[in-house]
Design brief:
heterotrimer, A alpha/beta, B alpha+beta, C mainly alpha, B: alpha+beta, four-stranded antiparallel beta sheet, 5 helices, 4 strands, 12% strand, C: mainly alpha, disordered N terminus
């Protein structure tokens, strides 16, 4: 029994407590006086993560409806890279540029940080509880008006749509509108009528002839990645590959991949197809209607009838699109392609429930009428994706309470009263179904970046928030709801998550098959005026504009025009000459609905009576990277629909005039002609079948030769003197017997131009993998005068200012060369060449470097040592391929206005790759970090690196499998085999640079070619 | 101690020098505002040894130039552009430049050493006029010789003869 | 300080022009040694105009320095670079200034070996110009590189990282060539100055200046022994500087010739560059010496005959440069190399026609006027022409660098180039830097080599003399043999 000692005084123990607390307090204060920076996201990392070692999560890409499987690489709890899931039936490991860039949606600096409510015009923060309650109260207050409430959701497959409808039904609200602006609704409709399925599988490889009537299956038509894979496989059959004919007023990326372009008047496709199918209308009539030479059509007709099997696709966006689609289906049936190249049995279900712009227009009109008490938007931005003439903003303004689940401040959420920012797909649970019978799972790859919340959980929260309705959802959250419906439950899901794909169909169990909407009578184009046609097309890079806030996509040059950070109007050389227009002169396009003005891009690939504009730019909101960049083509588009409800984009008459302004094109193109320098080489089928000339298979390097650099000899031979001498024993680390074993390998790459479609996915993949800064943002420009004011004047604030100065940093770029067509005829050939560091055996860039910042590594790489580089830029002068890039500004310095990774975009940076400093040279490294990682893994597992065990980022992403990387010194790697192909050549071989990149010649199939 | 004489005329100076030499007086320092061939002929000095400095400097320079280039290349062998690790041909430039550098500097050093400069303190037997227009002769002489020397100088028309001590 | 002189005596040019390009140069206006001292030291008195010029130069220099600071902070992107044009105004100006720096050593060394007497009164100016021009040139590679604070990595020095520069790189050759050239030419300038400083020292009344000059003159006493070693040293320095001056610009030309870039990768570059360098150097000498002889009243030292002789040298080098241009074109055509041909067509008739024609007019066509003796002996015209030559030679380097890089092998990467305010400010600043040093020099130290002029001035003589065969009473320069002939070998 202890007596309190010194009851008046402080107990010793209390004193110590106080002391300790005070000490703690002071130290804490001391800590917080300078802002604490977290070096790694975790102080104590969970058991399953090792700092510095990647964890991979299989999930699903939600950038478009196709629903490709992706594998998210996370490092210390942050997703740093997306790659296609090889096990996935849709994309088989490939991933397009938009999918790659989904990361920049996750880390977008302009995302809503937390729920917001609009009070007297200004957005104010609000807690999730209050936000949920506010939504609940509103819904509760609807009463009978609930029947008129609107929920507009982006079209997506999987369980969520069903969940959503179920939830809406619980509040007597109508089923949601699943809007998909990019899906070819006419085709879906026609297919349902013809085959009973919306999207039969298309077998390009089986076809001997592919005819595309405006179907851009390589850019936005359908599920582009699987189509690219199939098309590339078909083309890889070389002599047996299908000939590809493209019919349409504008030569899109798909059209540029065609062997023949039949440039028809917009709207005349029906006449052509009918004539070809022999269902009314003669070839002659079609020729006159379409402005195409009759002989050409006749020849095509003969070819179709002669070549079996063929594959005819339709993707026109005219008012009569449905008729064209039906005619094409009939043509396929007549040609006996159904079941051979068109397989309704193996249908793709991605688009089954895609809603049309027409439905959205109806919704807008309902809103305009003031009948809608409550409108909710998720992942749809009607203000931007519908023609201006529809006055969407006005209509939305008429709705008393608008809720946006968008995570980004886009034009629509700028009008909304309540913002409930949704989780990014990489932060949330979900599922998708593209191929019938398989569920593609979506799981969080990392913790939330901001205080966002998955919409489904918000909705569940609303229901549970009210005791009356709480019983509807016994589950805690959407994840458990999913588990509940998942065949096999939690355990099965757990195992399935590892692969990211599971058999079974969530849709069929939950969703009623979509009933085709009452086909509206085609809204005709009133008041057509002008002698030209306006052709609007969805941008293959930015889509309907969703990509606009991702710098990678803004920076990615359009595959056709090679223009970035800018809108442009494509105009034919002859027309341009007639109107006195040069590249960059502003062109004004007037239609009955409005007008749009943008700089001209003189392009062989449009008819002389056509101007082409891409959608996607011209945002008035949507964050720093999208706002006020370019123009929105839809501003000039009248509201017209085909009978399937799709927007009519290509049959609009317009008046075209030259405007006063001029702004240089933000293009990466220097000259579009090769000037006979053999950079992109091609063969015709005839030449391919011809016996190889003796000298044709001339190839750098040669095993037997004593000193000869190049792929065919060990790296040591790349150097003269001691190293090149086979007898010398003193080769140091360049000796294959050296303990490091580096010199045993010789890293090389082949690029098959017969496969490459120019889609540019590799470029974005490279940006993601190698921390390449984007330099085109308006605030990244250079100084224009000595004295700047705080408002940033005095700087070059044009979008893409740095690219105007040729300072883009793309380590791999797609060069697009035209052959022929100098006279403006549609008969020209396009060659796409991925150009990257060629890792020369005799690199002209190496000897000129005064500080050894670049040298030839024992495994054949042309190494660039950033820390050693002093920035003389001499190496770039030496390089004939011009693939070295210089850090002109402090793109990696947060203190500089040119900083390329504003928080939290920097979370994406690859920890394995340096962020280059100001004033150093950089270039493609053959993803040396991946090479070393693979080697280290092999060493840890006490084995050699297995053939084709790993590959570079570009090769991994490539949706046409054109790029192959590996060890040319080891015959078991496929690259060694491909390098021996008789189509192999080196660019600028005559310079004796002995490059490690081998190109395989493109194969052309001219009309009437060998068959 | 000695005699310092200043002359206005070149030929007078030359005569004086030759006369002194006839008197077996060899320790003569001649001052001339600008190098004159006549005076050099009269004095008949040995050839300047500066060229030896030049030769030694140049040779060691070229050796060092080649050595540093070749040694440092072999010290850390890196292949650049297929060139031999130590490529002597381009290293000739290094060798040449270092040869010129060291050679030139040692030549200057040779001049300094041989002509006993830098000499900060003004010694006896000099007069500022010798850098102006006048020629001069300085003869260190014992007292017994002083008279003869002075007399010689005057005979040849020295404008001033000074006893320095 | 010496008193200012009266106007120099009116000099009557001899009716028949002597063969000035030889050792026999006359200075009829200069009568005796004392006159040389007084008149030359008179030029050292600062004037208002000089202060004005110096102020302007310093202002220009500070503006350029500010621009450089700005560039270091914000990055090279603020210069006009337009990849693949990775080299621009800075390298152009580097080559330009190095070229300027070639006249001095040429005149003081090569013409010395060739016994070309007309060098005597202009070489001091030219040498000073050389030193300051090379100082200016040396700045530009540092301004040009991306990380100037790492410039010392190009210099071989023992370091714990055990890394050495790449001696195969022309840029390292540059480091050696330029630093050697700077050291040797400034040494040359200084040792040449020593006797003259001694002259100033002995004329100086102000004790402090006298002390400083005493230190600088190293206690030079004009003794016959000093002259003898001096002469031998001067000879060997000249013998070293001659190949050096030829090597430096050859090495600079390797910066281009070693890259496989079209328009660069040619063997004609070394001689072509050396000729161009001397040409531009002479041009700059005219730009400098003509105002100096006017404002310093030195027309009777730097006579019309001197200018005439220098003009002939200028004409010769101009002809060499011109033929080099023509040979370039011819080779491009004769090689049958399409890339090379397309490049040259683009250079002269395409994208860069204007630059190419500025070069051709200023360097090939205008100098042909020097075939006329009247114009050769017309200082005003020589000055105007020299300005054109400076302009033309700057553009020669522009035409060599920019069009090549903007029109290389890869058509996809063809581009243009426009300098920005930063480049131009730094270029202007470099002129400020150069003239700042030069102006400071000409008021501290004699711009005419006093001792060497005295060699030409006839010495006082008492009578005809047994040595009359050497002592030339006509006043013609008695050639100074540093040693008995035959010892040069």
């Amino acid at each position: 029994m202890t007596q309190p000692s010194g009851s008046a005084g402080v107990k010793r123990r209390d004193f110590l407590k106080v002391l300790g607390a005070a000490g703690a307090a002071t130290t804490t204060v001391g800590c917080f006086q300078e802002d604490v920076e977290k070096l790694i996201p975790y102080l104590v990392s969970p058991d399953d993560t090792v700092p510095g070692v990647s964890t991979y999560y299989a999930t699903t890409c939600r950038e478009c409806a196709a629903g490709c499987g992706v594998i998210a690489e996370t490092r210390d709890g942050r997703a740093i890279k997306l790659e296609g899931n090889p096990a996935h039936p849709v994309n088989q490991g490939a991933l397009c540029a938009r999918g790659q860039a989904s990361l920049q949606g996750l880390y977008n600096p302009d995302r809503y940080r937390e729920p917001m409510v609009r009070r007297n015009g200004r957005l104010e923060r609000i807690s999730w509880d209050d936000a949920t309650r506010m939504l609940h109260d509103r819904i509760a207050g609807l009463g009978a008006g609930a029947a008129n409430a609107l929920f507009i959701n982006q079209h997506e497959t999987g369980s969520f749509p069903a969940f959503l409808d179920q939830w809406l039904a619980g509040y007597n609200m109508p089923a949601h509108i699943a809007y998909d602006g990019e899906a070819p609704h006419a085709v879906l409709q026609a297919n349902r009528q013809t085959y009973g399925v919306a999207w039969p599988a298309l077998d390009f490889t089986a076809a001997r002839l592919i005819v595309s009537v405006g179907a851009d299956f390589l850019d936005t038509w359908g599920a582009s990645v699987p189509q690219q894979l199939a098309f590339a496989d078909a083309r890889a059959k070389l002599a047996d590959a299908p000939r590809f004919v493209y019919i349409g007023p504008r030569r899109s990326l798909t059209g540029l991949n065609a062997d023949e372009w039949i440039a028809c008047k917009p709207g005349s496709e029906l006449a052509i197809v009918n004539a070809l199918a022999g269902r009314g209308g003669s070839i002659a009539d079609a020729a006159t209607a379409s402005g195409v030479d009759q002989a050409v059509l006749q020849q095509l007709a003969n070819e179709i009838s002669a070549t079996k099997p063929s594959l005819v696709l339709s993707g026109v966006t005219t008012t009569n699109a449905l008729d064209v689609a039906l005619a094409v289906n009939a043509l396929n049936q007549a040609a006996g392609n159904v079941g051979v190249t068109i397989k309704p049995a193996e249908a793709l279900v991605s688009f089954d429930r895609a809603g049309t712009p027409n439905e959205l227009r109806d919704a807008v009109q309902r809103m305009a009428s003031g009948a809608v008490p409550l409108a909710m938007f998720r992942g749809v931005n009607p203000v931007h994706v519908l023609p201006k003439s529809l006055r969407v903003a006005e209509a939305i303004g008429k709705v008393p309470f608008k809720v946006s689940f968008s995570s980004y401040p886009d034009e629509t959420s700028e009008l909304c009263d309540l913002i409930l920012p949704d989780d990014h797909p990489l932060e949330s649970w979900g599922d998708a179904e593209s191929v019938r019978g398989s569920i593609s799972l979506q799981q969080p790859a990392m913790d939330r970046v901001f205080k966002t919340r998955a919409t489904a959980d918000v909705l569940i929260g609303v229901t549970k928030g009210d005791p009356a309705t709480a019983s509807r959802y016994p589950v805690a959250d959407y994840r458990n709801w999913l588990i509940g419906r998942f065949p096999g439950g939690a355990a099965a899901l757990g195992t399935a998550l590892a692969r990211g794909i599971a058999s079974g169909s969530s849709l069929q169990s939950t969703a009623a098959p979509r009933t085709a909407p009452a086909a509206p009578t085609a809204a005709p184009l009133e008041g057509q005026q002008g002698d030209m046609y306006l052709v609007v097309y969805p941008s293959p890079v930015l889509g309907d504009g969703r990509g606009g806030n991702k710098p990678w996509l803004q920076e990615l040059p359009d595959p056709v025009s090679k223009i970035a950070w800018q809108s442009w109007i494509e105009i034919h050389p002859a027309t341009a000459a007639r109107l006195g227009i040069h590249n960059g002169d502003h062109v004004k396009v007037d239609t009955a609905a409005g007008s749009v003005t943008a700089p001209a891009f003189i392009y062989l690939g449009v008819r002389p009576d056509v101007v082409g504009i891409a959608t996607g730019r011209g945002h008035t909101a949507y964050g720093r990277y999208a706002q006020n960049i370019g123009v929105n083509a839809l501003d000039a588009l009248p509201v017209a629909h085909d009978t399937a409800g799709g927007l009519a984009l290509t049959s609009v008459k317009a008046r075209v005039s030259k405007a006063a302004e001029f702004s240089p094109l933000v293009t990466t193109e220097g000259s579009a002609r090769q000037h006979g320098r053999g950079i992109a080489q091609a063969l015709t089928v005839a030449e391919l079948n011809a016996p190889p000339a003796a000298e044709e298979h001339h190839f750098a390097g040669d095993k037997d030769h004593e000193f000869l650099p190049g792929l065919r000899s060990p790296v040591a031979n790349d150097a003269q003197g001691v190293l090149g001498n086979p007898k010398s024993k003193d080769k140091g680390m360049y000796d294959p017997e050296h303990w490091s074993g580096m010199a045993k390998r010789r890293w090389a790459m082949t690029v098959d131009l017969a496969r490459c479609t120019g889609c540019s996915a590799c470029v974005t993949a490279c940006y993601a993998e190698n921390n390449i800064p984007t330099v085109g943002a308006p605030w990244q420009g250079r100084s224009l005068r000595p004295f700047h004011s705080s408002d940033g004047s005095g700087w070059d604030t044009r979008p893409g200012a740095n690219i105007l100065k040729g300072r883009e940093m793309a380590w791999i770029r797609i060069e697009r060369y035209f052959e022929g067509g100098e006279d403006g005829s549609p008969d020209f050939d396009t060659r796409f060449v991925p150009m990257l560091c060629q890792h020369c055996g005799n690199a002209p860039c190496e000897p000129v470097c005064p500080v050894y910042a670049t040298y030839h590594s024992p495994d054949g790489l042309n190494v660039q040592v950033y820390n050693r580089c002093v920035g003389t830029r001499y190496c770039s002068n030496g390089c004939p391929y011009k693939v070295r890039y210089f850090n002109w500004h402090g793109y990696g310095e947060p203190a500089r206005r040119q900083y390329a990774f504003p928080e939290p975009l920097n979370w994406q940076l690859n920890p394995d790759v340096t962020v280059r400093g100001k004033g150093v040279m950089e270039k493609c490294t053959f993803c040396v970090q991946r090479i070393r990682e693979a080697e280290h893994r092999a060493k840890l597992e006490n084995r050699e690196v297995a053939p084709d065990e790993f590959t570079t980022a570009c090769a991994q992403a490539c949706p046409s499998r054109a790029i192959t990387f590996g060890d040319a010194a080891d015959e078991n790697w496929s690259v060694a085999r491909l390098a021996e192909d008789r189509r192999a050549y080196h660019v600028f071989e005559e310079l004796n640079t002995f490059t490690a990149v081998v190109y395989l010649k493109k194969v052309n199939h001219p009309a009437g070619g060998a068959r | 101690m000695g005699i310092l004489a200043a002359f206005r005329e070149l030929d007078a100076t030359v005569d004086a020098i030759e006369d002194l030499k006839k008197q077996k007086i060899t320790d003569i320092t001649v001052y001339t505002p600008t190098p004159r061939h006549e005076i050099e002929e009269a004095v008949h000095p040995p050839t300047s040894p500066v060229r030896k400095f030049t030769l030694i400097g140049g040779v060691s320079g070229v050796c060092f130039g080649y050595w540093i280039a070749i040694w440092s290349s072999d010290y850390w062998p890196l292949v650049v552009g297929g060139k031999p690790v130590a490529s002597w041909v381009p290293y000739t430039i290094i060798g040449f430049e270092v040869m010129v550098l060291v050679g030139a500097l040692s030549t200057v050093a040779g001049m300094f050493i041989n002509s006993r400069i830098p000499k900060i303190t003004m010694t006896v037997g000099f007069d500022p006029r010798f850098t102006h227009g006048d020629f001069g002769i300085w003869v260190p002489a014992e007292p017994d010789k002083v008279r003869a020397v002075e007399e010689t100088m005057r005979r040849h028309g020295a404008v001033e003869v000074r006893h320095e001590r | 300080m010496a008193t200012t002189t009266a106007r120099p005596p009116a000099v009557k040019e001899p009716a028949t022009r002597p063969n000035v390009a030889s050792a026999n140069v006359q200075l009829p206006g200069v009568r005796d040694y004392e006159q040389v001292d007084t008149e030359i030291s008179a030029t050292l008195k600062p004037t208002a105009g000089w202060f004005g010029a110096l102020g302007l130069a310093i202002a220009m220099f500070l503006w350029g320095a500010g621009a450089w600071t700005y560039q270091i902070y914000w990055g090279l992107g603020n210069a006009g670079y337009n990849p693949p044009v990775m080299w621009g105004v800075y390298i152009i100006s580097f080559v330009f200034w190095v070229g300027i720096g070639h006249a001095g050593t040429l005149i003081s060394a090569i013409l010395y070996l060739f016994r070309a007497g007309f060098r005597t009164t202009i070489y001091r100016c030219a040498e000073a110009m050389t030193v300051f021009a090379v100082m200016t040139a040396g700045l530009f590679p540092i301004i040009h590189i991306g990380r100037p604070w790492k410039f010392f990595w190009l210099i071989p020095y023992p370091n714990w990282r055990l890394i050495w520069p790449n001696f195969k790189s022309p840029l390292v050759w540059d480091v050696f060539a330029i630093s050697t050239y700077l050291t040797v030419s400034s040494t040359f300038l200084y040792v040449g100055l020593v006797p003259d400083i001694a002259v100033l020292r002995d004329r100086e009344t102000n004790p402090i200046r006298k002390r400083i000059l005493a230190v600088l003159s190293l206690g030079w006493r004009n003794s016959e022994r000093e002259w003898r070693h001096f002469a031998r040293m001067y000879l060997f320095l000249a013998a070293f500087s001659t190949p050096l001056v030829l090597s430096v610009h050859s090495v600079v030309s390797f910066d281009f010739a070693m890259a496989i870039t079209p328009g660069w990768h040619t063997t004609i570059f070394p001689p072509y560059f050396v000729a161009g360098a001397i040409f531009s150097g002479i041009g700059m000498v005219f730009t400098i010496i003509i105002p100096i002889r006017k404002f310093f009243k030195l027309q009777h030292y730097v006579t019309i005959n001197h200018l005439d002789a220098a003009a002939k040298l200028c004409l010769t080098t101009s002809l060499i440069v011109g033929s080099a241009y023509i040979i370039e074109f011819w080779i491009a055509w004769y090689s049958g190399n399409a890339v090379e041909q397309q490049y040259f067509i683009n250079r002269v008739f395409g994208q860069w026609w204007w630059a190419a024609w500025i070069m051709l007019t200023c360097n090939m066509i205008f100098p042909l006027s020097l075939f006329s003796q009247k114009l050769r002996r017309n200082p005003a015209w020589l000055f105007i022409l020299s300005i054109f030559i400076n302009l033309g030679m700057w553009f020669e380097r522009f035409v060599i660098i920019v069009p090549s890089l903007s029109h290389e092998f890869e058509p996809w990467q063809w581009s243009g180039y426009v300098p920005s305010w930063v480049d131009t400010s730094i270029l202007v600043g470099s002129f400020g830097w150069f003239f700042m040093w030069f102006l400071l020099f000409i008021k501290q130290l004699p711009v005419i080599a006093i001792a060497e002029v005295k060699e030409i001035v006839p010495p006082k003589l008492r009578t005809a003399h047994p040595h009359a065969d050497h002592v030339d009473t006509s006043g013609r320069h008695q050639e100074y043999e540093p040693d008995t002939p035959g010892e040069f070998a």
